[in-house]
Specification:
The complex is a heterodimer. Chain A is built from three helices and no strands. By secondary structure, chain A is an all-alpha fold. Chain A has one domain: Up-down Bundle (F1FO ATP Synthase), CATH 1.20.20.10. Chain B is mostly helical. Chain B has one domain. Classes of the chains: A mainly alpha, B mainly alpha.
Chain lengths: 73, 243
């Protein structure tokens, strides 16, 4: 395999990390909606956004690696 | 018409005033310039905003008071009893990261929080400071933080290394989270802008996506500053109250 195609495959593989971020963010907001539906007075929205940021960050680690593979090497 | 996309060009540090004392590169760079602008803006907001404090606040006084109250509320609820002593530190940290993120979204400016060394320095200050606070307040009892209470001795063999690892990994996760968010967001903006330049007719589509991503980035910029500050508060609570 020549290095150029290996680089592209590697960048694509690094993006698989975003699967987890997608599942995580979906989970966070699904839970937020069900919590607010059960108890509209619940003060949980700030925690949901904290969870969103933390879940999104883990996926972005992979995306950042993909960008570094594509544009730095 | 292939236009070469260089999305990482925007993160390049360029010297504005070259300075090389004793062979060390200490030039005044675009990164340093943006940091100075951020600090000046924060100082101007808090000092000038409250100089003629009125009972009914004007626009600037409102912004200053709102940011103060927001961070004060966050510290009080998350750092627990005695956490308000560290409010000035958390407030400066939050405003510095927030301004860094937001100023980076101004076209043709520079995002200093997109450099791992900047965020790592901030996170290292938090980590070392919190550790010092813990030892100063509890002495050697601070090490109890790594020994969960009410756990059988056999499990401690497993749990103590995990607690130690999760403690010492904190500065890295704290810094990489902020850095990766800024890097990925700004790179994504540049990539879609590059698509817009290289597609002849339907260039309007990537521009539309760029606009949407820009709004997401505004959210992320504020959110990451919030996360950075709130995690600092939670670490402080660990040091002050040992779980």
């Amino acid at each position: 395999m020549d290095p150029a195609s290996a680089k592209l495959i590697g960048a694509g593989l690094a993006c698989v990390a975003l699967v987890g971020a997608g599942i995580g963010i979906g989970n966070v907001f699904a839970s937020l909606i069900s919590a607010l539906a059960r108890n509209p007075a619940a003060q949980v929205t700030p925690f949901a956004f904290l969870g969103f940021a933390l879940a999104e960050a883990t996926g972005l680690f992979g995306l950042a690696i993909a960008f570094l593979i594509l544009f730095v090497f | 018409m292939a236009i070469e996309i260089k999305p990482l060009e925007q993160f390049k540090i360029e010297p504005i005033v070259p300075l090389h004392p004793f062979g060390i590169d200490a030039s005044f760079t675009n990164s340093a310039l943006l940091m100075v602008i951020a600090v000046v803006l924060i100082t101007a907001l808090t000092v000038l905003g409250t100089r003629r404090a009125a009972l009914v606040p004007g626009r600037w006084q409102s912004i200053a008071e709102m940011s103060y109250e927001f961070v004060a509320d966050m510290v009080e609820t998350n750092a627990g009893h005695g956490g308000m002593a560290y409010f000035p530190f958390v407030f400066s940290l939050f405003m510095f990261v927030l301004l860094g993120n937001l100023l980076g979204l101004v076209p043709y400016s520079f995002t200093f929080t997109s450099h791992i060394i900047v965020t790592f320095a901030l996170a290292a200050v938090v980590f070392i400071g919190v550790t010092i606070v813990g030892f100063a307040k509890h002495g050697m009892h601070f090490l109890k933080l790594f020994v969960p209470a009410g756990v059988p001795a056999v499990l401690l063999l497993l749990l103590v290394p995990i607690e130690l690892l999760s403690y010492f990994i904190r500065p890295f996760t704290l810094s990489i989270r902020l850095f990766a968010n800024m890097l990925a967001g700004h790179t994504m903006l540049a990539i879609f802008a590059g698509f817009a330049a290289s597609v002849p007719l339907f260039g309007i589509l990537p521009v539309g996506i760029d606009v949407a991503i820009y709004f997401l980035e505004l959210l992320v910029a504020a959110l990451q500053a919030y996360v950075f500050a709130i995690l600092t508060c939670l670490y402080l609570r660990d040091a002050l109250h040992l779980h």
